[in-house]
UniProtKB/TrEMBL annotation:
InterPro entries, sorted: Claudin (IPR006187), Claudin_CS (IPR017974), PMP22/EMP/MP20/Claudin (IPR004031)
Keyword Membrane: yes
Topology term for the membrane: Multi-pass membrane protein
Keywords recorded for this protein, A-Z: Cell junction, Cell membrane, Membrane, Tight junction, Transmembrane, Transmembrane helix
GO molecular function, one term: structural molecule activity
Annotated source species: Cyprinus carpio (Common carp)
Listed name of the protein: Claudin
Main subcellular location of this protein, as a coarse class: other
Length: 176
């Protein structure tokens, strides 16, 4: 029972980290400084591009048109939202199927519901992994391209997808 609660908390915290990533502005970050007095910071995420100057004033603009965006951005947005939805339903199924809640009915039914929660969390983790890996690959390829503005890094994304993936493995092993 304690392993089950630990796995549930681990999956839930991974889902919360995936949800918090959608609101993060600094998916990619670039700094341009030609003179000491003037610098420009460029950062972006799935939803907008932002520019910040030396005074700290930020100007963020949402992407103006859905038709003008590249395909990978549409796919990343869709998979990020699907990952959040799968994580939510995985949490609901895990709460219903846990041994300590007594909501699911018999022990066999609880095991099946918990196994469904593990599969749902696995789908959540894989969708998140595809989003972050694809975005990271895009940033890396833009960084290597000599004709593209320098992009530095993607922050802490792989930790956010490891929690649901590893926890669902333990879930599946418990009730197989």
């Amino acid at each position: 029972m304690y392993v089950e609660i630990g796995c549930f908390l681990s999956c839930l915290s991974g889902w919360i980290l995936i949800c918090s990533t959608l609101a993060t502005e600094y998916w990619t970050f670039s700094e341009v400084s030609s003179v000491v007095l003037t610098t420009g910071n460029y950062y972006s995420n799935l939803w907008m591009d932002c520019v910040s100057d030396t005074t700290g004033v930020s100007d963020c603009k949402y992407y103006p048109s859905m038709m003008d965006l590249p395909v990978f951005l549409h796919v990343c947005r869709a998979l990020a939202v699907v990952s959040v939805i799968f994580g939510f339903w995985g949490a609901v199924l895990a709460l219903i199927g846990m041994k300590c809640t007594k909501i699911g009915g018999s022990e066999l039914t609880n095991s099946r519901v918990t196994f469904a929660a593990a599969l749902t969390y696995m789908a959540c983790g894989f969708c998140g992994m595809i989003v972050y890996s694809w975005w990271g690959n895009k940033v890396r390829s833009d960084f290597v391209d000599p004709y593209y503005l320098e992009q530095k890094y993607v922050t802490m994304i792989y930790f956010k997808i490891c929690l649901p993936l590893f926890s669902q493995v333990i879930y599946r092993c418990l009730f197989w």
